[in-house]
Amino acid sequence: MKLVGLTGGIASGKSTVSNLFKDAGVPVVDADVVARNVVQKGTGGWKKIVKAFGDEILLDNGEIDRARLGQIVFSDPSKRQLLNRLLAPHISSGIFWEMAKLWMKGCKVIILDIPLLFETKMDRWTNPVIVVWVNPETQIERLMSRDGCSEEQAQNRINAQLALDWKKSEADIVIDNSGSLDDTKQQFQEVLRKVSEPLTWKERLRSRDGLISVVMCTAVGLLLAQKNLL
After folding, report:
1. Which residues of 134-157 are buried (b: 16+ CB within 10 A; e: fewer)?
2. Cα–Cα distance between 230 and 12 in angstroms, integer?
3. What pLDDT does residue 202 have?
4. Minimal CA–CA distance to 130: which of 171, 188, 190, 186?
5. What is the pLDDT of residue 71?
6. pLDDT band at 220 (very low <50, low <70, confident <90, very high)
7. What pLDDT, on a 0 to 100 scale, did the predictor assign at position 77?
8. Among residues 92, 94, 97, 95, which one has the least CA distance to residue 112?
9. CA 161 to CA 151: how far, in whole Å?
10. What is the rounded distance in angstroms from the CA atom of residue 149 to the CA atom of residue 176?
11. With contact defined as beta carbons under 8 Å apart, do 131 and 174 qualify?
12. At what angle do helices 44-53 and 77-104 cross, to 10 degrees?
C-alpha cells in the first residue's frame, strides 16, 4: 500500500487537488473531515474543547462555533497549541481508522490529505509528499476573498502556520497553484501518473493482498516443514 502525503497552506488550493484525486478514483483520507467528526457534540474531543475554552465557543444548538474558535486560536499561539494538543490523539486515531478501512478494502494507493502533515511528523509515513504551493500575493488575495477578512487578518492566519516555502523545500512533488485551474489540472495529471506507478515490494507487503500472500506462504512453509519432520 502506497501512502501519499498531501499538504499545503491555508488558501493554497490543497482541497482543489484533493478533489482532483477523488474525481480520478483515488481514495482520500481527509484530516479536516476527521477533525470535524471528532468535535461533534457529545464526543470526547467536544468535551475537551468546551472544558478548555468555555461555553462561549458553542452555538445555540450545542455544536462548536468553528468561526469563533478559529478567531481565538489564530490570535493566540498558546491557545492554538492547546487546541492541537487536545485534538491530536482523536484526529490521529480517526485518520488511522479511515486508513484501516481502506486497507481492508484492498486499496493500493491512499492519499492522506493532512494540513499539519509536517507538524505532526506524519510525513515520515508517506512517500511521496505532495505540497500544493501558491505565491504569497495570490495566497493573501484568495484568503481575503474566501473568508471575507482583512489583509491583516489574512496575514496573521498565514503566519500562524509553517511557512509554505519551507514546506515546498521539503516536498517530493510540488504543485504550483498560483495560476489557473487548467494549469493546476495539467500538473495534476503528471502527479497522478507518478503516484499510480507500480508498487515497490515494500509497498506490496503493506497492502492487504501482500499480507495475505505472506501469511499463505508462511503457512505453506510450515506445513511442508511439518511434513518433512514426520
Report:
1. beeeebbebbbeeeebeeebbbeb
2. 66
3. 66
4. 171
5. 86
6. very low
7. 87
8. 95
9. 16
10. 24
11. yes
12. 180
pTM of the model: 0.82
Tell me the per-residue pLDDT of 96-151, one tens digit each, with 9 for 90 and over. 999 999 988 988 899 999 999 998 889 998 999 999 999 999 999 999 999 999 99
Torsion angle, CA of 46/34/156/56, rounded to 10 degrees?
-20
Residue 97: in which H helix or E strand, if any? helix 77-104
* 1-27+110-197 against 28-106: fold identical: yes
HSE, CB side, 13 Å, CA atoms: give it for residue 28: 20
Give the model confidence (pLDDT) of 161-218 as tens digits. Answer: 999 999 999 999 999 999 999 999 999 999 999 999 887 766 665 555 544 443 444 3
Per residue, the 3-state secondary structure of 163-179, as one string, reads CHHHHHHHCCEEEECCC
Which residues fall within 8 angstroms of residue 6, CB to CB, at 6 or more apart? 14, 17, 18, 21, 28, 111, 112, 113, 114, 117, 130, 132
**What residue spans define the domains of the chain?**
1-27+110-197, 28-106, 202-229
Instruction: Give the 3-state secondary structure of residue 134.
Output: coil
Which residues lie below 8 Å from residue 50, measured CB to CB, with a gap of 6+?
57, 58, 64
Query: pLDDT exceeding 90 applies to what percent of the chain?
Result: 67
Domain at 1-27+110-197: CATH architecture: 3-Layer(aba) Sandwich (3.40)
Which fold does the domain 28-106 belong to in CATH? Rossmann fold (3.40.50)
